[in-house]
What we know:
Number of domains of chain A: 2
Largest sheet of chain A: 7 strands, mixed
Number of strands of chain A: 13
Helix content of chain A: 40-55%
CATH topology of the largest domain in chain A: Dehydroquinate synthase-like, alpha domain
Strand order of the largest sheet of chain A: 1-2-9-6-5-3-4
Number of helices of chain A: 14
Structural class of chain A: alpha/beta
Low-confidence stretches of chain A: none
Strand content of chain A: 15-25%
Oligomer: homodimer
CATH architecture of the largest domain in chain A: Up-down Bundle
Amino acid sequence: MATARLDLAIGGRTCPVLVGDGLAGRLGELLRDQLGADRALVAMDRAVASLHGRRIRRGFRGSGVRVLGWVEVPRGEGAKSLARARALYRAFLEAGVDRWTPVVVVGGGVTGDVVGYAASTFMRGVPVVQVPTTVLAQVDSSVGGKTGVNLDRVKNLIGSFHQPRLVVSDPEFLATLSARDYRAGLVEAVKVAITLRPDLLERMEANLPSLLAREPGLLAGVVAACVAAKGELAARDEKDEDVRGILNYGHTVGHALEASRLGRLRHGEAVAVGMNAAAWVGERLGVASEEVGRRQNRLLTRLGLKLTAPDADKNVIVRNLKLDKKVRAKRNRFVLTLQIGGASVWPHISDRVLRDAVRVVTS
Amino acid sequence: MATARLDLAIGGRTCPVLVGDGLAGRLGELLRDQLGADRALVAMDRAVASLHGRRIRRGFRGSGVRVLGWVEVPRGEGAKSLARARALYRAFLEAGVDRWTPVVVVGGGVTGDVVGYAASTFMRGVPVVQVPTTVLAQVDSSVGGKTGVNLDRVKNLIGSFHQPRLVVSDPEFLATLSARDYRAGLVEAVKVAITLRPDLLERMEANLPSLLAREPGLLAGVVAACVAAKGELAARDEKDEDVRGILNYGHTVGHALEASRLGRLRHGEAVAVGMNAAAWVGERLGVASEEVGRRQNRLLTRLGLKLTAPDADKNVIVRNLKLDKKVRAKRNRFVLTLQIGGASVWPHISDRVLRDAVRVVTS
């Protein structure tokens, strides 16, 4: 399979995103060719290291890029902490990372977020290379430059905007994901399809068996389409002050639900429920086509995702909603998809409608 | 005295810097007029709060700007810690700070650095208004957007670039500084004069008695000249990859000395010694005019500053130099002033010359 390349121009710099089978075994060469690097530090998700570590290490041998240090990061939302960021700072310092040394992050969304955050604040920011190993990270979190850690159970309360210098997406990683992680990761692709890309939605609907079979060519196409769509919004609005907010579709209720069941729900599983809530709000307000909820929920269901969370505590969710970063002076900003491919950020929906939506998806 | 206004265009946004007597008593009105704010959080240096707190608070009454919280920050380099940043995050969260709520920082360099850092990483960055209360902060650290905290005795190892939305410099604050703090703060102004502004150097030399008497009109002029010079470099090179490095004149040895005597030397006192070292290096390499060292050292001496630090441990200083953020792949970048107003960043000076310079200024 050929390598696809997208050049995202965000925040005054161009970030190449390479998508292709086997790229993760050639990281040394890619760092040298794309960034002119002769040294790097590699931070890996611990579980990824045990599955793919040898291949990653081999990809630096004879490349002319010296790896100053190998750091392993534990898995799970708990790793997204200020304490973990501090441990990373110390590892960077000990390894001799300087302002020009790329930090290569190999892992999923959690690893990318916490290592990206540490790298963005170490010496006021060192270069980051993202090597996403999950569907979630490949279609969404590895591009756009958002980093973050949690504080006091508030998700991503602390973070930064720090664009990676290079993203290397290798579909081979996706073959070793659990079925649950794989399906949950596809939710972000469904989100992009529903809010921005009718053609991607059709492609996913038409190729469901291949998608579930993790067919590498199809996956690479889905990843590239999502990266292009997200890159376009991030280029227009890096700091998430405007149109980039569309990518939060399903995330208002999704984040609040996820925080209420920390560690028990995958991010994508919570967002699937949140997308159901968002579609419900659109219909309830009479502004969204019924096609949105119907096709979105049908595809999510066929992918094996649940649309409701009957075990969740709706009072906790409603309380969490008040801490949402999108809440501005007590107004609830909310993303609605009016028709397939046509989403926008609404400045306010009432507390009552929000509460009703939470009730609908928790019963 | 009239208010001077400079508009610094850095990082894609314009930051107004207002300099004038009495401005700190009108913060509410300034926030409303300049930023359209209707709410804010105020973080103050504890000692400043006890001296100027009433005036600051009065300046919000009837302004239409509601203060969500008043936070006090202890004084001293020890406050520049990740633990302090975390305490600030919690205070912001409790007060209800959202992405659009300005955090107003009233204090010197330490307060500006740590509160600026916390604000830059809270919700991926909230607006910051700097109200610098020391000479150091007014002429230097409040503009340009650098924030930072220390880790494991390495100064500013963790930090960010986060431009303030507004800077309000009121010379009235400078009247209550100790003689030692006042004189140490002027070192950064001498640095700007020597490296970039011959006219400022002449003005300081010609008006020494008024300068030492803290004459407000003269001070406002010195502050404005330094802000303009720094703003120009930061506009060309926000991320300190190139010409902005000139502002590190005297800071290579200065920082290493300061870290070796943490809490016992003022930043400016260490930088004065570092400037002496830098001038010595320039002469030793035969590239700098002898006028640089002569006029610089004469003015520093007349301001009451010491040019050497005989009590410092030169081995500790040399060790600290290796941790300098300017060191790239073991090459010692170093700022030299070749003639008054003409400084540049040298890609490398030898370890031996650096060590000799440290020996000269510690004996």
